[in-house]
Amino acid sequence: MAATMAQKKQGRLRAALEHASGDKRFKILEVHMKKHLFRQDALIEVLHKAQELFGCLEDDLLLFVASKLKLPPSRVYGVATFYHFFTLKPQGLHSCVVCMGTACYVKGADKILAAIQDHANIKPGETTPDNRMSLLTARCIGACGIAPAVVYDGKVTPRQTPASALGQIRNWEEK
Fold this sequence. Notes:
Elements: H1 2-20, H2 24-35, H3 43-54, H4 59-69, H5 73-82, E1 94-99, H6 102-106, H7 109-120, E2 126-127, E3 133-138, E4 150-152, E5 155-157, H8 162-174
Helix pairs in contact: 1-4, 2-3, 3-4, 4-5, 7-8
């Protein structure tokens, strides 16, 4: 059993390294790791660069990083899943982040989120099948004075309602 698992791991690692050979982004990432002297304590910086280059941290990319930094894949995966900045799935063309902090929630963030979920037929953390929009939630974005706030493509928008949020999403759909 252990031998079979080790063979599977070696096969996945070999596939990840072969996949890396033809993609310039892997070379750029390797140069970035070299800049950090392949130090294990540079893992977060390396993951940031990997996500910047690839858009998300898929399994083969995490295995590549683990191999190059000589870290167990479980450590790399653990760091990638612990921090909310990192994403393991491809994101949509547009992003919609609904703040669920206390002030926003009290002023109707749950209704905004429900309206978006019903309209787009996705849950928080998911992307629409056409990859046009990713729906996310945040514990608090620190914009309590303008609650409820929603972040559309990185821009904080104040005093949202279900209707205004759906208006923004429909606007994206028309483009």
